[in-house]
Backbone:
């Protein structure tokens, strides 16, 4: 709900600024060097829907994190960032294709780290509204833990993947900016270990799609 409201606010602000866009053509690239530092609030919808639903009772998780970008040539930028999400459900097994809970609490933690690059394009002469897109690498720490686990039941592993993203960055006041971003993530062969819920559903990708709300400073 919070992310949906943020999207609506940015869309409304863009609509109000439309007359300003028409008054003068926007520059094709951002001049010089600069930076953007921000905190992020993500809503992540996982590709392994059945596996997450069977254990956590939901297919999407909320995440919080932070990141930064450095713009070094005509709108070209490099970025780095991290986020973390955690949810508690119960261990389960499959009977006739249906998940059955065993009542043992299970905590799932997902911590992605992203290293990426992209391009920024101003939408107005004052560079208040800037669109951007890019892609890069994803490194994901994944854990499943419970207090009454048998040897080998808990999972603590790291996986590599990639992501593509696009969004709009809006300057609110001086250095303060906000924005909305959409990400598509793929982390192949991360799930599906033997005798796991994900193996029963033949789901191996820990990626998915994310809607991101950003707040920070931009220069």
Residues:
């Amino acid at each position: 709900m919070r992310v949906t409201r943020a999207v609506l606010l940015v869309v409304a602000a863009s609509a109000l600024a439309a007359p300003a866009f028409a008054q003068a053509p926007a520059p094709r690239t951002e001049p010089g060097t600069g930076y953007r530092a921000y905190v992020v609030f993500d809503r992540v919808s996982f590709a392994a829907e059945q596996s997450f639903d069977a254990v956590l009772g939901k297919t999407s998780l909320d995440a919080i994190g932070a990141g930064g970008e450095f713009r070094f040539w005509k709108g070209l930028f490099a970025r780095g960032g991290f986020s973390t999400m955690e949810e508690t459900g119960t261990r389960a097994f499959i009977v006739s294709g249906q998940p059955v809970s065993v009542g043992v609490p299970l905590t799932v933690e997902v911590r992605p780290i992203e290293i990426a690059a992209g391009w920024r394009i101003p939408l107005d002469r004052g560079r208040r509204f800037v669109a951007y897109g890019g892609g890069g690498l994803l490194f994901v720490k994944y854990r499943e833990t419970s207090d009454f686990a048998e040897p080998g039941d808990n999972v603590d592993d790291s996986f590599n993947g990639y992501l593509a993203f696009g969004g709009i960055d809006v300057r609110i006041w001086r250095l303060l900016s906000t924005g909305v971003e959409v990400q598509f993530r793929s982390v192949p062969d991360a799930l599906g270990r033997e005798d796991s819920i994900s193996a029963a559903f033949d789901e191996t990708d820990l990626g998915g799609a994310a809607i991101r709300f950003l707040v920070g400073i931009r220069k």
Observations:
- The radius of gyration is 20 Å.
- The chain has three helices and eight strands.
- Helices lie at 2-23, 49-56, 197-200.
- The longest strand covers residues 98-122.
